[in-house]
């Protein structure tokens, strides 16, 4: 395919990543190191997610790529075009039609099925990093389940703002064992991680770590008894499709301060408006 | 003179004392000849404050680090007596050791910046050990924070302020509150009043003494300041070049020092 191996990475690399993925699936929420490769784009643009996608993609798979829920933003368009070119796979924007969905910052609103795989692009895989800068120490903390410090951050939120002000990358505990950073998805999407039918894979290219949530795994968001976990809510409905239950983006429409709230998941919004079949 | 001849009655070994809390047996940790600590033996009883004094470089901090589980000794054992039996500190798993350090023991650093999380509020600092224990009720954590800030004579109204905005003495108080919140049985203190001016030091010492008595704490206190040692500790170990040169009751050692080095140390104290 244009002088590239199928899906850009060489077969040995894909094999190595698949092996790491098997380990990650076997230990839900555990960060597995892998030999990250250079991708033809800068770190921070989704190199981790792309290596995972490249490793699991088959010739007859249908790929969807979203960035902040949208199929038409730069990151989504370029990664989609990349795989069209180096793997020759069919791509789609319809959530239900996709086999593999690579995502940045969102989980699609349409519930995922058991034959779908969601691949997340992760910037900082270590949820304990903000409080403990040493990798050696954080690994030990994971090994010994020393997760008390995670609540220090939530405590600090309530002390400062009166409520848990963490709105994205909200820490979760996977299968009652590992505390995991679900990547910068809004906490609105955290409940979708719990008992999800689809396999969820997380790849961090710069940090060279990957982790996974197997299908039907318990995922709890950390909270306090008297300040339970809550998701974001809006007074408005989507200005385009009228949805009152999806994650909304605030869009400024002119210089006079007018604004709209619209669904961040473009495919979901278009489907509701009947603009795609 | 041999070291065994120096050991006072408090070090006499085979006394079967039920209230022994910590047995230190022949502990050595040497970084080089004479650097570190060598063949240290002593027993700490429940409710006792043991002072370790000596000049800089005499190995007192190394000994404290070994006792507190922060540094593995080259030889020797540290036995901790719990309610359900003995624990050999360096034979148990790392998980168990760290849990012990976090819950039943406490360590007060000389510099409060080493013991506190400077980026989060005073309340979060005090609550951290409780959260590690599994406390998940914000209201309770906050109440405990305010309670302990009052106990260490801090203004409970400053519970949401960052430790960065506290003075040195207040930071040290906060560190003590943070350590005592899980009601540890044994606390290690490394120069708790170092770097504080004398009036602040006096008030802090007074507070530590009150807390130790109220909570029935056992304390291992490392200090180079004999006045601090006299005020707080029941028993003293005098260290020099990694070895214990004299041990005994505090008043006995300070009033009637036997070893030449202890005599020098006692005579060097400035009196205004």
Automatic annotation (TrEMBL), chain A:
The protein's enzyme class: lyase
Example GO molecular function: alpha-D-ribose 1-methylphosphonate 5-phosphate C-P-lyase activity
Reactions mediated catalytically: alpha-D-ribose 1-methylphosphonate 5-phosphate + AH2 + S-adenosyl-L-methionine = alpha-D-ribose 1,2-cyclic phosphate 5-phosphate + methane + 5'-deoxyadenosine + L-methionine + A + H(+)
Bilayer-crossing regions: none
Entry keywords, A to Z: 4Fe-4S, Iron, Iron-sulfur, Lyase, Metal-binding, S-adenosyl-L-methionine
Protein name stated in the entry: Alpha-D-ribose 1-methylphosphonate 5-phosphate C-P lyase
Function: Catalyzes the breakage of the C-P bond in alpha-D-ribose 1-methylphosphonate 5-phosphate (PRPn) forming alpha-D-ribose.
The UniProt record lists the keyword Translocase: no
UniProt record similarity statement: Belongs to the PhnJ family.
Gene source species: Modicisalibacter muralis
GO biological process, one term: organic phosphonate catabolic process
Top-level lineage group: Bacteria
Pfam families, alphabetized: PhnJ
Keyword S-adenosyl-L-methionine: yes
EC identifiers of the protein: 4.7.1.1
Automatic annotation (TrEMBL), chain B:
GO biological process, one term: organic phosphonate catabolic process
Matches recorded under PANTHER family: PHOSPHONATES UTILIZATION ATP-BINDING PROTEIN PHNK-RELATED
MF (Gene Ontology): ATP binding; ATP hydrolysis activity
Protein name: Putative phosphonate transport system ATP-binding protein
Residue stretches making up the ABC transporter domain: 22-266
Organism of provenance: Modicisalibacter muralis
SMART domains: AAA
Gene3D superfamilies reported in the protein's UniProt record: P-loop containing nucleotide triphosphate hydrolases
Keywords: ATP-binding, Nucleotide-binding
Family matches, as InterPro entries: AAA+_ATPase, ABC_transporter-like_ATP-bd, ABC_transporter-like_CS, P-loop_NTPase, PhnK
């Amino acid at each position: 395919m244009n002088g590239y191996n199928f899906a850009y990475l060489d077969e040995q690399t894909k094999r190595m990543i698949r092996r790491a993925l098997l380990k990650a699936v076997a230990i839900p929420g555990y960060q597995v190191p892998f030999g990250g490769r250079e991708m033809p784009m800068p770190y921070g643009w989704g190199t981790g997610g792309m290596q995972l996608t490249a490793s699991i993609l088959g010739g007859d798979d249908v790929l969807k790529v979203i960035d902040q829920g949208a199929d038409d933003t730069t990151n989504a368009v370029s990664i989609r075009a990349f795989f069209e070119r180096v793997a020759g796979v069919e791509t789609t924007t319809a959530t239900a039609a996709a086999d593999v969905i690579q995502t940045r910052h969102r989980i699609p609103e349409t519930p995922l099925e058991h034959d779908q795989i969601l691949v997340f692009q992760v910037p900082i895989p270590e949820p304990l990093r903000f409080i403990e800068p040493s990798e050696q120490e954080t690994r030990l903390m994971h090994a010994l389940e020393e997760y008390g410090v995670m609540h220090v951050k939530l405590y600090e939120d309530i002390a400062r703002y009166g409520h848990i002000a963490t709105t994205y990358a909200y820490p979760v505990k996977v299968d009652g064992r590992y505390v995991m950073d679900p990547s910068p998805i809004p906490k609105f999407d955290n409940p979708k991680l719990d008992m999800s039918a689809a396999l969820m894979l997380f790849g961090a290219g710069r940090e060279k770590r990957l982790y996974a949530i197997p299908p039907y795994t318990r995922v709890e968001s950390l909270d306090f008894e008297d300040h339970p976990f809550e998701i974001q809510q809006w007074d408005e409905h989507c200005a385009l499709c009228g949805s009152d239950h999806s994650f909304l983006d605030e869009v400024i429409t002119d210089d006079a301060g007018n604004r709209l709230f619209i669904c961040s998941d473009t495919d979901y919004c278009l489907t509701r408006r009947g603009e795609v079949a | 003179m041999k070291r065994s001849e120096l050991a006072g009655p408090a070090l006499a070994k085979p006394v079967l004392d039920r209230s022994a809390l910590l047995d230190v047996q022949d502990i050595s940790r040497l970084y080089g000849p004479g650097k570190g600590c060598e063949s240290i033996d002593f027993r700490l009883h429940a409710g006792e404050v043991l002072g370790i004094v000596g000049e800089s470089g005499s190995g007192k901090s190394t000994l404290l680090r070994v006792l507190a589980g922060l540094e593995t000794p080259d030889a020797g054992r540290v036995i901790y007596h719990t309610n359900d039996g003995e624990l050999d500190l360096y034979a148990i798993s790392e998980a168990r050791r760290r849990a012990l350090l976090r819950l039943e023991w406490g360590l007060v650093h000389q510099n409060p910046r080493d013991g506190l999380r400077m980026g989060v509020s005073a309340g979060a600092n005090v609550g951290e050990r409780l959260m590690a224990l599994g406390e998940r009720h914000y209201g309770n954590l906050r109440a405990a924070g305010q309670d302990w800030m009052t106990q260490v004579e801090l203004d409970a109204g400053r519970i949401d302020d960052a430790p960065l905005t506290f003075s040195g003495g207040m930071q040290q108080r906060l560190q003590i509150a943070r350590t005592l919140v899980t009601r540890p049985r044994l606390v290690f203190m490394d120069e708790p009043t170092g770097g504080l001016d004398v009036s602040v030091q006096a008030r802090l010492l007074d507070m530590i003494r009150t807390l130790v008595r109220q909570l029935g704490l056992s304390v291992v206190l490392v200090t180079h300041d004999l006045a601090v040692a006299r005020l707080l500790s029941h028993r003293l170990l005098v260290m020099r070049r990694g070895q214990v040169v004299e041990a005994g009751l505090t008043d006995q050692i300070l009033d009637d020092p036997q070893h030449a080095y202890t005599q020098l140390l006692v005579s060097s104290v400035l009196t205004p």
